[in-house]
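Hi there,

I know you've been waiting on this one. I reran it after we fixed the sequence typo, so this is the corrected version. Both the input and the resulting structure follow.
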Amino acid sequence: MGFSAGCQPLMGYNYGSGNYERMTSFIKTGILSTSLVGVFITLVLGASSPFLVSVFTPLGEVCSSGSTILRTLILSLPFMGGITLCSTTFQAMSKPLKAFILTISRQGLLYIPLLFLLNHLFGLSGMVYSQPITDLIMLLVSSSFILKVLHSLKTDMRETDNLKDICGGVDVEKIY
């Protein structure tokens, strides 16, 4: 969340100035960085999950179940940075509808139905796995949204450059 919030002004500045290559570089670096941090935290929390759960209860059976559930839920951590980064990028680009769709889709449109479906099919295990599955799907959806928008920006940029070439170097954007 902090990384995404810190990148949001950078995305907005570069979007506003038309520096889409730099913006794309920030997105790639951000998704890679947050994913690596997420993997690291997942490994640390996964290795220490029995201890973390035992801090709250001395019951062996609860510690065992709680440790398994914690390990399952933290599988989402490598995906969270990319999802949040895509959403805040849309906010920085003045595309609030896309950001809203991503945000509402994660919890309302995807997680809740998956929660009920997987609970019905697999019981408690299905309920627990519904969050990491939702986050993996949302990373794929978010990435496809952002790639589509970036591709259209690059296409627009090429068309503007072609118009400049046709018009003898006149910046056509300034005319409008």
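Quick highlight: The chain has a mean pLDDT of 87.

Best,
R. S.
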